[in-house]
Design brief:
Elements (H helix, E strand, L loop, with lengths): L14 E4 L48 H19 L3 E8 L8 E10 L2 E10 L2 E4 L21 E5 L8 E8 L3 E9 L4 E9 L3 E4 L8 E7 L6 E10 L2 E11 L13 H13 L3 H6 L9 H6 L4 E13 L7 E13 L2 E16 L2 E16 L8
Parallel strand pairs: 1-2
Antiparallel strand pairs: 2-3, 3-4, 4-5, 6-7, 7-8, 8-9, 10-11, 11-12, 12-13, 14-15, 15-16, 16-17
C-alpha cells in the first residue's frame, strides 16, 4: 500500500404495532409400518431380524387467533400498561418476545411533559408483572430527559449481538442534535442495560467487520472541520460493548466534497477520505507539488483498493521553532486480491507543510501492523 433539533411538536402520537408470528398449520404424516426385507441367503444362516421404523411424531397444528381474540388481547394489554405507566402517557406499543421464551410481552414507550421538562420513558409488561426500563442517569446538574426529549417511537427488538436472546434498542433524540441509544436485555429476573451511546452526528448499528455481531457507531461533529465526523466504534466482546477503534467520515454525502486543509491533521484525513471515495485526482492534489510522483503509476497503485478507513489521527510538531508538522494515523485498507478481500492495518506518519492553498502532504513512512482476510461487506460511508 502507498502512503497510506429542532424541537418536535408537543402532541402525542400513539403508535400500536402488534407483531404476532403464527407458524403454518403442520401436516401430520402417515405412520410408517414395520418393514421386513427378504434376506438374501448365500449359505444357510439364521433369519435376519426385521428392522422396525418408528412412526414419525404427529405435528399438532398451532391454533389460529381470531380478530376478536386479537382485539381483546390488545385492549387488555393497553389497559394494564396505562395503569403501570401512571402519570405518563402511552405513545408507542410493541407486542414481541423480549425474553426468548416464545411468548410475547408488551413493550411500551411513555412520555411526560411537566415542570421538570419533557422525558421519554419505557417499560415492559408481562402478564401481571411490570418491568420499568431504567435509562442512564443524567450528568450532575443536567436535566433528566430519560430516553429522550421528544415523543418518538424509534425502537426495535432483535438479537443484535447474536447470543440467542433479543435486545431492546431504544433510540431517542435531544437538543443540540443529539441521538441517544439505550440497549437492554433480559437477565432472567429483569432487564439489564447493556450500554448507552450518544452523539451529535448520529448513533447507528452497522456491520463491516464480517462478524455476526453488529457494531455500534457513535458519531461526533468536529468543530474545527464541520464537514467531518469522528466515529467511535463499539464491538461486542465479553458480554458487553466496548470501544475498539475510531475512524473519520464525511458528515454530508454530497459530491464533490470540499477538502479541509486548514490544519495538517485535516489534510491527512481528507487525503484518505478522497481515496475511499475513489477521487484519486482530489487525493493527488493534496500531495505537495514538490513531492508528487507521476500520476499514472501512483493511481495504478490503488487499482485493487476497495475501501480505506483512517482513525487515530494526531499531530506532532517537528520542533518548537518549525512550522511543518508530523501527523500520525491508523489506516486500514481493503484490497481485492484475486477475488480475496485482504485487509491491512498500517501505522502511518506523514510530514506535512503549509502552502498558499492549505496544508499539503510531503511524504510518509508506514509500518504494517496486521493482515487478515474478510468477507466483503461494502462500508456505510
Amino acid at each position: 500500500m502507498q502512503g497510506i433539533g429542532r424541537r418536535r411538536p408537543s402532541w402525542i402520537l400513539l403508535w400500536l404495532t402488534v407483531v404476532i408470528a403464527l407458524p403454518l398449520a403442520g401436516c401430520a404424516p402417515a405412520s410408517l409400518l414395520s418393514v421386513t426385507p427378504t434376506p438374501l441367503l448365500l449359505s444357510p444362516a439364521p433369519p435376519l431380524p426385521s428392522p422396525t421404523l418408528k412412526p414419525s411424531p404427529t405435528t399438532t397444528p398451532w391454533p389460529t387467533i381470531s380478530p376478536a381474540e386479537l382485539e381483546a388481547t390488545t385492549v387488555t394489554g393497553i389497559g394494564a400498561l396505562e395503569i403501570a405507566a401512571g402519570p405518563d402517557r402511552l405513545i408507542c406499543l410493541i407486542y414481541e418476545d423480549t425474553t426468548a421464551d416464545g411468548q410475547p410481552e408488551w413493550l411500551a414507550l411513555t412520555y411526560r411533559e411537566d415542570i421538570s421538562g419533557p422525558r421519554l420513558g419505557a417499560l415492559v409488561f408481562d402478564g401481571e408483572s411490570s418491568y420499568p426500563l431504567i435509562p442512564v442517569p443524567p450528568a450532575p446538574g443536567a436535566a433528566d430527559i430519560g430516553f429522550g426529549q421528544y415523543p418518538t417511537c424509534d425502537v426495535s427488538v432483535r438479537d443484535v449481538n447474536q447470543n440467542g436472546v433479543p435486545e431492546i434498542a431504544i433510540f431517542g433524540y435531544a437538543e443540540e442534535n443529539r441521538t441517544l441509544l439505550h440497549l437492554f436485555t433480559w437477565m432472567g429476573t429483569g432487564y439489564r442495560r447493556l450500554g448507552f451511546f450518544s452523539g451529535d452526528a448520529g448513533v447507528k448499528f452497522t456491520n463491516v467487520d464480517g462478524r455476526l455481531e453488529e457494531e455500534i457507531w457513535e458519531g461526533y461533529r468536529i468543530s474545527g472541520a464541520p464537514d467531518l465526523v469522528w466515529y467511535v466504534v463499539y464491538t461486542w466482546e465479553d458480554d458487553t460493548y466496548g470501544w475498539t477503534s475510531d475512524h473519520h467520515a464525511w458528515y454530508y454525502a454530497d459530491r464533490p466534497q470540499t477538502y479541509p486543509t486548514h490544519a495538517p491533521e485535516y489534510a491527512v484525513i481528507a487525503f484518505y477520505l478522497a481515496l475511499n471515495d475513489r477521487d484519486l485526482p482530489g487525493a493527488y492534489q493534496l500531495l505537495a507539488a514538490q513531492a508528487r510522483p507521476d500520476y499514472q503509476p501512483w493511481a495504478v497503485g490503488y487499482a485493487t483498493t476497495i475501501r480505506i478507513s483512517v482513525g487515530g489521527v494526531q499531530t506532532r510538531p517537528m520542533t518548537s521553532d518549525e512550522t511543518p508538522a508530523r501527523v500520525v494515523a491508523m489506516v486500514t485498507a481493503w484490497d481485492n486480491e484475486g477475488g480475496v478481500i485482504v485487509a491491512r492495518l498500517w501505522s502511518v506518519e506523514w510530514n506535512t507543510t503549509p502552502t498558499a492553498e492549505g496544508w499539503r502532504l510531503m511524504g510518509s513512512t508506514a509500518e504494517l501492523l496486521e493482515t487478515w482476510t474478510v468477507p466483503y461487506r461494502p462500508g456505510p460511508e
